[in-house]
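Fill-in record for UDP-N-acetylmuramoylalanine--D-glutamate ligase.
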Amino acid sequence: MRLVVLGGGESGVGTAILGKEKGYDVFVSDFGKIKENYKEVLISNGIDFEDEQHTENLILNADVVMKSPGIPEKAPIVKKLIEKGIPVISEIEFAAPFTKAITIGITGSNGKTTTTMLVYHLLKSAGLNVGLGGNIGKSFAQQVAEDKFDSYVLELSSFQLDGIVDYKPHIAIITNISPDHLDRYDYKYENYIDSKFRITMNQTEDDYLIYDADDEAITEWFKNNKTKAKLIPFSLTKTFNEGAFIQNNNMEVIINQDEFKMETESIALEGKHNMKNAMAATSVAKLMQIRKATIRESLSNFQGVEHRLEKVLKIQNVQYINDSKATNVNATFFALDSMNSPTVWIVGGVDKGNDYNELMSLVREKVKAIVCLGVDNKKIIDAFGNVVDMMIEVSNMTDAVRMAQRLTEKGDTVLLSPACASFDLFENYEDRGNQFKQAVQNL
């Protein structure tokens, strides 16, 4: 059996290692450059690879192809594979059959990293033998090859879900759905929504789907579609006989007639959206039969995720917050919604078909000045030019932070929440967030 891996990053190299261990003839091909550390791993495992090209006769003879999530379906080599009828799958689909571990799959437009990390924190604190993978951390396939864990918490992007055929998580979470990555879905929102719901397509009556019952796209989908999984909703406004909700400043989670209660004030994560992430994660903990005292303790000491509403420093009574992970409008909506003081907002990057109108009321209410940090800021300027008093364009992070500082007074907040991808000026959102933190420390 010949396994061809497209993309020599974390998921690609991990898949190659697992494939080799399971007796496949493995070849890795990357159209870009493979990083040195990954090359070393491939060489030490005796795996053939190429980079900066795709040699067709070495690829089109595959029995199965694992495509890294970053490579679009529209890539010429992927089109040729599909035309030839060669299965093109994701790392998750390839690796899952080789493990008996149960998986908890988490997807959504926003909140999935925080929810994934929180679920992992809850299960690990309870002493479970649990791995973390998917879109985050170490490759799931490589962990399966090393075979150390009884369960996995997997963050799954829509791109990873597009490449599944038979994979099913025992517990699935859909945190929310809002327009994102529409450039990869023919600019059709319904295609993207269907892609997220692939997480539950193979689930049976013995599996669970935890979902946001306040989310419009999710509730619409349920009107016309069904899943066999047992449904566990969570909501900030409704209550349930089975599910998670808020009542009298308590978060309540009822599963299998067993109730868990905790004061919302004791939960470490701040903001309404984080309350939802906590409800989703607690539902998993209950299904995994973790003790209530352990859940309480874990929820009260969880530190949050880097680059997601991360408090960096307070300088001259101005709070600097790094929300570089906000790569779409909906994530930035949550960030602005949780601001309690006049805010200087650093925004911009590569626009993925954003509609800034949904931010309008929050910008009017909370934002005193905008610093545009992107190569093309026209849409942002058109949207908010008449709404805020000050609008400035800069082309690097140092200038962005310096200008933001000049626009602040005591008691203000400077918020980096770009609502865009980062590939115009930065390597990725982590690089963008780290440059922000560095620039703040240099003030």
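KEY FINDING: Residues 242 and 298 are 22 Å apart (CA to CA).
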